[in-house]
Design brief:
This protein is an alpha/beta fold and about 120 residues long. It has a single domain, classed as Rossmann fold (3-Layer(aba) Sandwich), CATH 3.40.50. About 40% of the residues lie in helices and about 20% in strands. It has four helices and six strands. Helix 1 (about 10-20) crosses helix 4. The radius of gyration is 13 Å and the shape is globular. It starts with a strand and ends in a 6-residue tail after the last strand.
């Protein structure tokens, strides 16, 4: 499992996730700190990364394109610290690994994890 962490989420979580043996990079580490969502999504698809993000734009782009990858984990929880983000992602990967590997949007809320499989518009 490889993760691509979007802007707005703590870069310091990357090191913690790598320590947990989850290959992770932050968009800022690949020169995308000011990039629109489309090139981030394309890069994640090409490199087989799961996008971790604060916003729902990726979900909409996937739905409109009818793409089945990359998987996206929207976490609409503001001010999440690196330690909490890492714990949440470890939990999500443990519970939803197969879905994420096959292509899914796994939404993480405070007390719930939801999984939607493509196509997202049907």
């Amino acid at each position: 499992m490889k993760l691509l962490v979007d802007k707005g989420l703590p870069r310091s979580a990357v090191a913690l996730l790598c320590e947990a043996v989850i290959l992770t990079i932050h968009v800022a580490d690949i020169g995308f700190s000011a990039a629109d969502d489309t090139p981030i999504l394309q890069t994640a698809q090409e490199d087989k990364h799961v996008v971790v993000t604060l916003d729902a734009d990726f979900h909409g782009l996937l739905a409109l394109s009818e793409a089945t990858s990359p998987s996206v984990i929207p976490i609409p929880i503001e001010r999440l610290r690196a330690q909490s983000l890492t714990g949440l992602l470890i939990k999500v990967i443990a519970q939803c690994k197969e879905d994420l590997e096959q292509g899914a949007v796994v939404t993480v809320e405070t007390h719930r994890i939801g999984v939607r499989r493509p196509p997202l518009l049907s």
